[in-house]
UniProtKB/TrEMBL annotation:
Keyword Oxidoreductase: yes
Matches recorded under PANTHER family: PHOSPHATIDYLINOSITOL-GLYCAN BIOSYNTHESIS CLASS F PROTEIN (PTHR43157:SF31), PHOSPHATIDYLINOSITOL-GLYCAN BIOSYNTHESIS CLASS F PROTEIN-RELATED (PTHR43157)
Gene Ontology molecular functions: oxidoreductase activity
Name of this chain's protein: Short-chain dehydrogenase
Transmembrane segments: none
SUPFAM superfamilies membership: NAD(P)-binding Rossmann-fold domains
Family annotation (InterPro entries): NAD(P)-bd_dom_sf, SDR_fam
Length: 289
C-alpha cells in the first residue's frame, strides 16, 4: 500500500472496527471514520492517539439506518477525499426486535445491507481514482441460517420477529453482503478496485448489545478466551494489506486461515446476485427520490 493510505471505516467507535482503526493508525494510515455519536467518536480518537499521537483521524457523522443520511455522509466523504485506498464496510447491527426506520425499512436491513451498498456506490469515484483500491465487506457464516431468500420481498420486509427469530433476519442480511460483494466485483471489472467479503468468526464485541446480560457474558467469554476479536480484526487487516488478496476479487474469506469459503446457496448464484443488485437499486431509488 502507498504511504499514508486513506482508509474509510464504518462502525469504528467499537469492536472490530475500532481495533482495525487503531492497528492501521500504527501502520501510518490516514483514518476516515464514520460515527453517530460524537462522544464515542471522541473516545475512539483518544484511544487511537494513545498509540499514535500524531495520527491523522477525521470523523464524519451520520445515521447508517437512514438511506438519505448515508448518501449525504458518503458525498461529504467523497468531496473531502477525491482518493480513498480502502473502504471497510464494518458497521452492523443484530436487533432482537423489529424496529422500522422513518423511511419505512427494517433497521437491521438498513444498517447491515443498504448502508454499505449506498456508501460504496457514493464513494466509487474516490476508490477508482486511488488505483489498486480495496473494498472489504464484513459478512458472517451466520448467513447459513438465513432461511429462504425472497427477492425483492426480503429487502422491504418489516414483519415483527422475536429474539429467537432475529438470527434468521441477521443471517439474511449477511448473505446479502456476500452476494453484493460478488456482483460489485463484476461491476468494477476493468478497474483496479478489488472487492472481498469476510467471515470474522464469533466475536464477543458482536454480541447483542440489546441483551441485558451481554456485558456479563462478554466478560465470561473473555476469561475463557472464547470469541477473541483480535482474530476478526486480523483477517480484515490481511485483506487490507496482503498483496495476495489484490490478485483476485469477489471472494469470501474465513477468519484464522484466510482461506476462501463457498457461501451457502444462493450466495454464489450469479443470477440471484444480479437480481439482488437491480432490486436494491429500485428500492433505494423509491426511498431516496
Amino acid at each position: 500500500m502507498m504511504t499514508e493510505p486513506i482508509i474509510a471505516i464504518t462502525g469504528a467507535t467499537s469492536g472490530l472496527g475500532q481495533r482495525v482503526a487503531i492497528e492501521m493508525a500504527t501502520r501510518g494510515a490516514h483514518l476516515v471514520l464514520t460515527a453517530r455519536s460524537k462522544s464515542r467518536a471522541e473516545a475512539t480518537e483518544n484511544l487511537i492517539r494513545e498509540s499514535v499521537p500524531a495520527a491523522e483521524v477525521n470523523f464524519f457523522y451520520g445515521d447508517l439506518s437512514l438511506l438519505r443520511d448515508v448518501s449525504r455522509l458518503g458525498q461529504e466523504i467523497s468531496d473531502a477525499y477525491p482518493k480513498i485506498d480502502v473502504l471497510l464496510n464494518n458497521a452492523g447491527l443484530h436487533a432482537f426486535e423489529q424496529r422500522i426506520t422513518s423511511e419505512g425499512l427494517s433497521e437491521m436491513m438498513a444498517v447491515n445491507y443498504f448502508a454499505p451498498w449506498i456508501l460504496t456506490h457514493t464513494l466509487q469515484h474516490s476508490l477508482k481514482a486511488a488505483g489498486s483500491a480495496r473494498i472489504i465487506n464484513v459478512a458472517s457464516e451466520a448467513s447459513r441460517n438465513h432461511g429462504e431468500l425472497k427477492l425483492p420481498e426480503d429487502l422491504i420486509n418489516t414483519s415483527d420477529f422475536s429474539a429467537r427469530g432475529s438470527s434468521e433476519i441477521y443471517g439474511k442480511t449477511k448473505l446479502l453482503n456476500i452476494m453484493f460483494t460478488a456482483e460489485l466485483a463484476r461491476q468494477f471489472t476493468g478497474t483496479e478496485v478489488t472487492v472481498h467479503a469476510l467471515n470474522p468468526g464469533f466475536n464477543v464485541t458482536g454480541l447483542g448489545r440489546e441483551l441485558w446480560f451481554a456485558p456479563i457474558l462478554e466478560r465470561v467469554l473473555k476469561i475463557l478466551h472464547i470469541g477473541n476479536p483480535r482474530k476478526g480484526a486480523d483477517i480484515i487487516i490481511r485483506l487490507m494489506i496482503d498483496p495476495k488478496y489484490q490478485e483476485t476479487t469477489g471472494g469470501y474469506f474465513n477468519v484464522g486461515t484466510g482461506n476462501p469459503i463457498v457461501p451457502v446457496h444462493p450466495g454464489g448464484d450469479k443470477e440471484m446476485q444480479n437480481k439482488l443488485w437491480h432490486d436494491t437499486r429500485l428500492v433505494i431509488h423509491q426511498i431516496t427520490q
